[in-house]
Design a protein that fits this description.
The protein has a domain of 64 residues. It contains 3 helices and no strands. The protein is mainly alpha-helical and 107 residues long.
Length: 107
């Protein structure tokens, strides 16, 4: 029993050493100037944005592949109607704003 405990302890110790020496635990080089830091931050942000965009595209593709042909047609028709309605509302609001500004000028 003592040998088994010793081996488990040794195995745990070795695994801890290996995990701590992994590249993820290695210290990254810190930028020396502000410009380098900004470039590094911009690069990281660009990578995150690219990954997010790719994930979004995959989600859309997965969504559309799961839909039946009729459902796709219905969804596209609904989106088209919503865009048309939003356009009409924008026109109405612009018209109301113009009429409101004309009324203010008359006073």
């Amino acid at each position: 029993m003592k040998i088994k405990t010793f081996l488990y302890t040794l195995l745990l110790f070795i695994s801890c050493i290996l995990l701590l020496s992994a590249p993820s635990y290695a210290q990254t080089k810190t930028p020396e100037t502000v410009e380098e830091a900004e470039k590094q931050r911009a690069r990281e942000e660009k990578k995150r944005a690219k990954a997010a965009k790719k994930a979004d595209e995959e989600a859309k593709e997965r969504f559309w592949s799961m839909q039946s042909k009729e459902a796709r047609a219905r969804i596209k028709k609904t989106e088209k109607a919503q865009k048309k309605r939003a356009k009409q509302l924008r026109k109405q609001r612009r018209k109301q704003r113009r009429q409101g500004s004309k009324n203010k000028r008359k006073r």
